[in-house]
Amino acid sequence: MSKEQKSNKEDKKKPALSPKEKKAVKKSKKDAKS
């Protein structure tokens, strides 16, 4: 859980993610949740 929170913080720190990467992150988060 702490690992996910860390990556979450990193995402907010540098919002230089491309739309494709954002989609991948959203998908990976969904996969990790279920």
From TrEMBL:
Residues 23-34 have a biased composition (Basic residues). Residues 1-22 have a biased composition (Basic and acidic residues). Residues 1-34 are annotated as: Disordered. It comes from the Bacteria. This is Uncharacterized protein. It comes from Methylobacter tundripaludum.
